[in-house]
Amino acid sequence: MSSSIPVRRFDTLVIGAGGGGLRAALQLAQADAHVAVVSKVFPTRSHTVAAQGGMNAALANVLPDNWHWHMFDTIKGSDYLADQDAVEYMCRAAPRLVVELEHAGVPFSRLDNGKIYQRPFGGQSQNFGGDQAARTCAAADRTGHAILHSLYQQNIHAKTHFFDEYLALDLIYDDEGTILGAVVMEIETGETMVIEAKATLLATGGAGQIFRTNTNAHINTGDGMGMALRAGIPLQDMEFFQFHPTGIAGKGMLITEGARGEGGYLLNKDGERFMERYAPNAKDLASRDVVSRAIYTEVKEGRGCGPNADHVMLKLDHLGMDVIQKRLPGIRSTIQTFLHIDPASESIPVYPTAHYTMGGIPTNRHGQVVAPLGQTAEETVQGLYAVGECACVSVHGANRLGGNSLLDIVVFGRAAGNHIIDYLKENRYHRPMADDSIDKAMARLSRWGQKGEGESVRQLKDELKKTMEDFCGVFRTDEILAEGVDKVIALEARLQDARLQDHSKVFNTARVEALELENLMDIALATVCSAHARKESRGAHSRIDYPDRDDERWLKHSLFFKEGRKLDYKPVRMKPLTVDSFPPKARVY
Amino acid sequence: MHFSVYRYNPETDDKPYMQEYEVAVDAGMMLRDALLDIKFQDESFTFRHSCGEGVCGSDGVNINGTNGLACITPISVLKEPVEVRPFPGRPVIRDLVVDMTQFYHQYRSVKPYLTVHDPEPEEEYRQSPEEREKLDGLYECILCGCCSTACPSFWWNPDKFRGPAALLQSYRFIADSRDQATAQRLEELEGPYRLFRCHSIMNCTNVCPKGLNPTKAIGEIKKIMLKNNT
Ligand SMILES: Cc1cc2nc3c(=O)[nH]c(=O)nc-3n(C[C@H](O)[C@H](O)[C@H](O)COP(=O)(O)OP(=O)(O)OC[C@H]3O[C@@H](n4cnc5c(N)ncnc54)[C@H](O)[C@@H]3O)c2cc1C
Ligand code: SF4
Ligand code: SF4
Ligand code: FES
């Protein structure tokens, strides 16, 4: 069967054309590696385009700053679950990478002296926990758009080879577990193709679509994570899913943390600025997990706003039209479009919303995928790299700081590109193809060719998202999570009986969504199982029955394997590259 | 609410047709929500969409005769029955999905990337807030294609006329104080077609969902060219 599939050969295959994939591709193309970028949407439609507030780097353009403070904030923010070598690497690289982006054309907002504008964001401090820092480099509130478009433009310049609107189905791997490329499907024609590569990089983004109310795009279905699981690679720290404090209540669209960075604050029904009670110093700019839990608590204790007392208000009107128009024009227009109010004169109803996948495919700081393959906990999977939201390097640990993800994708996109360039020097030839692995990928596709009556994909997807919201949300208990595990397993079983009604080949989005749902199902299961197993509260994972952090037993990374739904653990890398370790401390803001 | 939607599947249909759907609507619903509901009723109905908030540029369609993004078009402002068609002038792949190859090709043709010949400094290039302000109204383009596919000049000459979106991008770099390729950019727009096919009909500006003004950008390029030629 596999012999009939057309084959294309490249040095490197990059799956995903968001910021992570494009930054890596640029590094490779500029080094004259023959690189193919596959994306299920035209590159500038990738979800990086939606990032608003900005990207962290200790440029010290506005307030004193240095990378070491940034490192401390990131580790504290992560509730000490981040790997400190990777965090040091990222924070040290940050200023240079922002400058690189600026040279690539990113239209950053400017200060009077012509330097890049920086705004305060949550969880940032000077001097290891002192005064608020201003570390987030911004292009108004369209930073992701500005970065993604500039990176795409530079890739045009570098003549990167793009396969737009191709859906990657599965990785191809041989008996030794070496990754040989991927099977992809051209969405326009429905035709499949094998892309052979000496190195494959996954940069497929997050999986916010496992939750009903989320800030993520329709395409954020975690496909790369699903592909990794099916190739026998575990997912790390999946129980840590970030709920952003300020989604538009009931709708989910994001209001950037930059709105609070510019001076906005939260109010409950009594008009009280309640964050002062939960985080006396940082107040509204405490870490996201802290602010989200505070909002839940306010609502649960009856201090919510609106007729159903089910949200709180974000006040911006005191900032004045000038600041709002100059610094937050994008969210102003979103609020006007979706709520028909003007934030320059009225407060905005907000509520925590599923936002960011902290967990993902385990990698080291070169972007190489690492897994316990038999000898040690972190053996490299030959030929496979992962960066960005689909990966877990881990710089975000149990809770990501705002502005650190755009940084993560460019830092590790570039690092992976560089490492691949070296890898290609030592691995000069393509290995023999593994036909059985191709057949497996094809079987996954042809399964959806079965005709007849059956459950609908959309119905199952809606149920899955509701289940995850109800049974794996912000506050978790053993009982709720156990029920969640059972429910997701039951949904997974029903997926076998789902059938498509549309069997055409040309631009069949129903089929694309069915394949995406399989990924969502696997990822939801990884998330709820990992959450059920972790008996402590840390960062975004908040257990009512285990309210405290338990460093003795749980200062470790979870690894979830698809086969047998097995969980394993590995130690956190507490040793940075050059500086002293930051040992776990109580976390106060 | 009543919707009339353009349907065409090259595998089964000889020619396109309009299909009618009823959608139960509620306040605050956007056209994209209605299209999703139609897809729930009829899985074979196909359109592109992703972010749901007007930033990714995927879901440009023709709505009651005007191009726009489905996800930020409230259905409350639409006349019934709502007619939804693919962008005019582009080959239809299926239903509302059109082939945008030429649109992207024209974008690439204007070399839409910052070009600097001098050695790079270790720090950021300095740019004053006033210089940066010149990029407002230009850099925000999401490449949705609403403008170019509403432009009669682009309909007739999509291979030769760059179209409003690409020209807006060209001007985005001409206007950037950091860019050093203005002369080349202008030179490459010479001739009767690439730029000068624009007859300032303003269709592009009228439909741009981001409120950008390609007509003005094109006018600015023409102004600079005229000034250079005198
Ligand atoms: C609304 C919003 C605002 C945000 N604001 C900020 C911010 O201000 N600062 C910050 O630091 N972070 C922010 N984030 C987070 C940050 O934007 C993302 O984590 C980051 O952009 C992810 O980049 P990525 O390259 O990993 O993935 P993405 O940009 O999501 O790209 C994924 C790519 O993979 C492709 N792909 C996926 N599956 C397949 C498949 N099966 N086959 C082929 N291609 C595939 C997609 O087409 C796409 O090109 C925000 C996130 C959201 C949702
Ligand atoms: S102003 Fe020019 S570019 Fe815009 S629609 Fe008219 S002819 Fe086309
Ligand atoms: S100028 Fe406006 S209409 Fe044209 S592609 Fe850009 S955003 Fe879309
Ligand atoms: S879905 Fe992204 S612009 Fe409409």
**CATH superfamily caption of the largest domain in chain B:** Alpha-helical ferredoxin
Write down the domain tally of chain B: 2
Q: Give the termini distance of chain B in whole angstroms.
A: 58 Å
Radius of gyration of chain A: 23 Å
Descriptive account of the structure:
The complex is a heterodimer of chains A (589) and B (230). With 589 residues, chain A is of the alpha/beta class. Chain A has helices spanning 19-30, 67-77, 84-103, 143-157, 223-230, 258-261, 275-278, 288-300, 320-327, 329-339, 404-426, 435-446, 457-471, 478-495, 509-533, 551-554, and strands at residues 7-15, 35-39, 55-56, 118-119, 136-137, 161-164, 166-173, 179-186, 192-202, 235-236, 241-248, 265-267, 312-315, 348-357, 361-362, 368-371, 379-386, 391-392, 475-476, 542-543, 556-561, 566-571. In chain A, the strands form six sheets. In chain A, strands 1, 2, 6, 7, 8, 9, 16 and 17 form an eight-stranded mixed beta sheet that branches. A four-stranded antiparallel beta sheet of chain A has the order 11-14-13-12, covered by helices on one side. The mean pLDDT of chain A is 96. Chain A has two domains: 7-240 and 358-435, FAD/NAD(P)-binding domain (3-Layer(bba) Sandwich); 242-356, Alpha-Beta Complex (Flavocytochrome C3, Chain A, domain 1), CATH 3.90.700. Chain A starts with 6 loop residues before the first strand and ends in an 18-residue tail after the last strand. By secondary structure, chain B is α+β, with helices and mostly antiparallel strands. Chain B has two domains: 2-98, Roll (Ubiquitin-like (UB roll)); 101-228, Orthogonal Bundle (Fumarate Reductase Iron-sulfur Protein, Chain B, domain 2). Chain B has helices spanning 31-41, 101-109, 129-133, 152-156, 164-174, 182-187, 203-207, 214-229, and strands at 2-7, 17-22, 60-63, 66-69, 82-85, 92-94, 97-98. In chain B, the strands form two sheets. Chain B has a five-stranded mixed beta sheet, with helices on one face. Chain B is elongated. The termini of chain B are far apart. The interface between A and B is large, with 56 and 55 residues. The structure holds flavin-adenine dinucleotide, iron/sulfur cluster (2 copies) and FE2/S2 (inorganic) cluster (FES). The site of FE2/S2 (inorganic) cluster (FES) has 12 residues of chain B, from loops.
